[in-house]
Amino acid sequence: MKEIHTLAVIGAGTMGNGIAQCAAQANYQVFMTDTKTQFLDRGFASIKKSLSRFAAKGKISEVDAARILASIKGTLDIKEAVHAADIVIECVPEELDIKKNIFKQLDELSPKDAILATNTSNCSITAIASATMRPEKVIGIHFANPVPIMVGVEIIKGLDTSEDTLQAAQTVVKKMGKEYYLTNDSPGFSGNRMLLLYLNESFNVVMEGVSTPKDVDKNFRLSFNHPMGPFELADLIGLDQILHGLVYMRNEFGDKYIPSPLLKKLVAAGYYGVKTGRGVYKYNEKGEKI
Ligand SMILES: NC(=O)c1ccc[n+]([C@@H]2O[C@H](COP(=O)([O-])OP(=O)(O)OC[C@H]3O[C@@H](n4cnc5c(N)ncnc54)[C@H](O)[C@@H]3O)[C@@H](O)[C@H]2O)c1
Fold first, then answer.
1. By three-state DSSP, how is residue 188 classified?
2. Given 110, 121, 122, 124, which residue is catalytic?
3. Which end of the chain, N or C, is less packed with Cβ atoms under 10 Å?
């Protein structure tokens, strides 16, 4: 099985910075790349905040927090990020064309034996793999948000993913302190296929004046024992990513995934959720609801 020492993360957003952090905590050599300095800076600020929280709770020492942060190398040059990678984990926006374009580059720029993983929530692993000359080394490793906290990871084999690639992915996930479950390659995999319908319908319920976001969230927390309501979860995931997911799923499964007009309106306004300071709710710089 391929030994993994160096891991590259493409996209330093909500998921990418969390994956980079967990990989560094697991003592991998980590590179993180994005398209602009401000996005990389935002990713590093998020990692710093998360590590400080762990240190404040006594889960890691201050010294370890500083060491972990310093061990992640940020770069705007994708070539530099992947040149020595044993595994690359792609975390760019949820659009198949963007992902295929990135995988084509990864195939050209990373070592020939590197594993190319995607954190996609919905897109076909087989379709993403088709952009490369190494489909046997392409796999889905779908982390949950927030990555430093959530333990579950969905691993998805594409049509040509090899056993060796699967085993290497399982080893990486375990070393990062996570637990994996396996899903076959199908749009939305096992969880998001249902989650997207539930979140989308929540927007319709509010748009029709049946209830308010606050009361819907209260309903799910108090009556269905969910740790957070659909609007709190939607703001955490990112309304833009939910909309991308619905568009993709509508194409695959038909009109039951028609995006709610209210969701579309919020995305058009730039209200993406916690990451932009406003989604369904408003947030301060610490990401706390105000
Ligand atoms: N947000 C969630 O809760 C969640 C959970 C599981 C999986 N995912 C999946 O993870 C992926 C990323 O989602 P996210 O929420 O982190 O998105 P995000 O919008 O927070 O971050 C995406 C990042 O990718 C960067 N990017 C765009 N094009 C790039 C390129 N060519 N090269 C390098 N960086 C580039 C953007 O600048 C941005 O910083 C998506 O496929 C999404 O479906 C998201």
1. coil
2. 121
3. C
